[in-house]
């Protein structure tokens, strides 16, 4: 029998190559778990017999189920397309020497830099602030040598792919949060749409977007499995109120958004339990609730430290 290992913060190892509607609309949060068994036979029937046919000739019940499946799929596709451009890919580098210029810094990865890990983040505002987990950028945040570098790859509002250096703005190890800033003059960014974690319910659908193992813009789906969990922070303290989900979160997902069915960010994907000795996710994954994030990030942007550290 597999033994669960320790809680793992999901910074990828070295790689080579808005508020949701009120409770009256909670019926919209139909999960795949509830629908899977009921609709499997209908879906199989549809794809086998009616893929190229007009479903109007079938019974109303079958036609309705097929239509609902298509609507759900279309909704997921639109959700990803509307949110993925706000998610960034963070690469943690160690330089062999201190670069003499910005242009040399941007070329450093190919010439004299070691990739130490990868992670995710998301665009907070149009000024270039990027929110991620502290453990994704911990080496940069504590660097005194000038040899640590974070490269941020993103897409602007006009679908242009951009890679830029991410400068550390502030961080809070107690809540595993950090803010980077990219300087993109002339490029318009698309920030995420923030939701709330106050009205979440166990069983509602959720989606994780990130870069597991360096595979950019990966979407995984699941449900909210639990609320009010407690997970350890990088400095050993407790992060309370964490969201538990079975949406797959793996190395490289850290810092990416957990979103609801409306495309609103409800948490930051942070950690997972792994089976001892395998490094594989057990399906017990955790995100920092967005209400906590909204409370802390403005202080990090303005002061560089959390409110409690300024006095």
TrEMBL record:
Pfam (any one): Trypsin_2
InterPro entries per the UniProt record, alphabetical: Chloro_Bact_Ser_Proteases, Peptidase_S1_PA, Peptidase_S1_PA_chymotrypsin, Peptidase_S1C
GO terms, biological process: proteolysis
Sorted UniProt keywords: Hydrolase, Protease
Gene3D superfamilies registered for this protein in UniProt: Trypsin-like serine proteases
Single GO MF annotation: serine-type endopeptidase activity
PANTHER family registered for this protein in UniProt: PEPTIDASE S12, PROTEASE DO-LIKE 5, CHLOROPLASTIC ISOFORM X1
Family: Belongs to the peptidase S1C family.
Full protein name: Protease Do-like 5, chloroplastic
Native organism: Olea europaea subsp. europaea
